[in-house]
């Protein structure tokens, strides 16, 4: 190797500079593909995690679907969520103190923040004296 350098007329400093230039060129050539590879690996891991979450969600929906295929379960859901009653049954709704604050489906639907129900507002409008317009 030393004979080749002598025949080309390159000194030790020039050889080191050329070697450093070759190493830098190789580093720059490999940097972009390596960065792309690492970014794609991270993206694959993220998509794999999301796919697993979606599989769990689908399994939960399948369990819910199987549960709701039972007519007794549908009836229980209608009674609980929609407060349905069978003909001849007497419905009772027990309101505990503080239930009106959380909005149990009662109220006038205006969303004005008042905690009174529509029939309380009606009774108040009938029983309270109205301001004299004149």
From TrEMBL:
InterPro entries: FtsL/DivIC
Keyword flag Coiled coil: yes
Coiled-coil portions: 37-71
Pfam families associated with the record: DivIC (PF04977)
Keyword Coiled coil attached: yes
Keyword terms: Coiled coil
Stretches with biased composition (Gly residues): 103-112
Region (Disordered): 93-134
Protein name: Septum formation initiator family protein
UniProt source species: Haloechinothrix salitolerans
């Amino acid at each position: 190797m030393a004979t080749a350098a002598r025949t080309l007329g390159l000194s030790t400093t020039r050889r080191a500079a050329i070697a450093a230039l070759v190493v830098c060129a190789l580093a720059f050539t490999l940097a972009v593909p390596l960065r792309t590879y690492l970014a794609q690996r991270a993206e694959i891991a993220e998509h794999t995690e999301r796919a697993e979450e979606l599989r769990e969600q689908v399994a939960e929906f399948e369990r819910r679907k199987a549960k709701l295929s039972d007519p007794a379960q549908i009836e229980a859901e209608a009674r609980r969520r929609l407060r349905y009653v069978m003909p001849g049954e007497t419905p009772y709704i027990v309101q505990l103190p503080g239930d009106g604050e959380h909005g149990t489906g009662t109220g006038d639907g205006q969303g004005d923040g008042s905690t009174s129900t529509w029939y309380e507002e009606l009774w108040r409008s009938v029983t309270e004296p109205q301001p004299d317009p004149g």
